[in-house]
Design goal:
Blueprint: E1 4-9, H1 15-26, E2 30-32, H2 33-37, H3 47-58, E3 63-66, H4 71-80, E4 83-87, H5 91-104, H6 119-148, E5 153-157, H7 160-179
Parallel strand pairs: 1-3, 1-4, 2-3, 4-5
Helix pairs in contact: 1-7, 5-6
Length: 180
């Protein structure tokens, strides 16, 4: 049974949408790191404030944490979680979804972003992060989830189709747990 869930992966992979729906299905409280790390308008909160809030969330019994945050908090979060949801779509999908979010963001604020975040600046940062994450973090993420399979629930989502399959699986598990 999942109680502490870390949702992570490259930019533009639909993590925020996935996390919100997962929270609705499971009833677990959702914490969006971009909304903790950035203030309305896109200004970054002081690092020590972000780390304190992150640690307070980790100390609770039930949570879904969506996003990256910073390198320092990433690995402790993955260690603490009993369930890892790694969104590892093909790089072109991430690029397309960042582009789509950029275009639609002028009409509707992106889900999981702080209010009044600068869409152009944030999108440019996402494009930059895509390459860096793909080159440096993706291999580490893949290695980490391979090692963690023995003691954590792992959901490694590699295609758009697997996202809907993931939701069906979680709905079925949640329903069977509620009936037991």
């Amino acid at each position: 049974m999942m109680k502490q869930v870390a949702v992570f992966g490259n930019a533009g992979g639909g993590k925020s949408t996935l996390s919100q729906k997962l929270s609705q299905i499971t009833g677990l409280p959702l914490h969006v790191l971009d909304k903790i790390k950035y203030q309305a308008g896109g200004a970054e909160v002081p690092s020590q404030d972000y780390k304190r809030i992150h640690q307070e969330i980790l100390s609770t019994e039930r949570w879904i944490i969506d996003g990256f945050g910073c390198m320092e908090t990433l690995w402790s979060r993955l260690e603490q979680a009993d369930t890892l949801v790694y969104v590892d779509l093909p790089i072109y999908v991430h690029f397309w979804w960042v582009t789509k979010r950029f275009i639609t963001g002028y009409f509707h604020p992106p889900q999981g972003w702080p209010q009044n975040s600068p869409i152009l600046k944030s999108s440019l940062n996402s494009y930059r992060a895509l390459w860096l994450c793909h080159r440096y973090l993706t291999p580490k993420y893949r290695e980490y989830i391979q090692k963690a399979q023995s003691n954590k629930n792992i959901y490694h989502i590699r295609s758009i189709e697997e996202i809907s399959q993931f939701f069906e699986l979680i709905k079925n598990k949640t329903n069977s747990q509620n009936c037991a």
